[in-house]
Specification:
two-stranded antiparallel sheet, 1 helix, 8 strands, single chain
């Protein structure tokens, strides 16, 4: 398989822009600090969108629980439960509002200041 490109392809790195996207969790990874990194890709194009981190401290419980609920984590016997591997999150979808990252505007992050911390249920998908 060959590879073809033009000068325009290397003139400037393409950037995702802030906005609202249908997003899918493409990978989950536990970090050394005990947080869970979610890698999101566009559910429409498959292009990478952003990473987000879930923290499992008492202070962050409300935020993490809200995000997991918006992703469609299944309720069993009246409770939401995430496995130790969190592999069930891979493939889950949400509508995510992305804004430039506070620390590095080259990257995007969910809009923490918006309703549900940038996540919305994707009503078109069965949960």
């Amino acid at each position: 398989m060959g590879f073809t490109f033009t000068d325009e392809d290397v003139a400037e790195e393409p950037k995702a822009s802030a906005g609202v996207y249908s997003a899918e969790v493409s990978k989950v990874e536990w970090m050394k600090n005990g947080s869970l990194m979610l890698k999101f890709k566009s559910a429409e194009t498959g292009d990478p969108l952003c990473n987000d981190f879930l923290h499992f401290t008492p202070k962050a419980k409300f935020i993490t629980a809200t995000k997991l609920k918006m992703l469609g984590l299944e309720k069993i016997d009246g409770k939401y439960e995430l496995s130790d591997e969190a592999s069930e999150l891979t493939g889950m979808r949400t509508i995510v509002t992305l804004v430039p990252d506070d620390k590095n505007p080259k990257y995007l992050q969910p809009d923490f200041k918006s309703a549900n911390f940038g996540y919305q249920e994707d009503k078109d998908l069965p949960f």
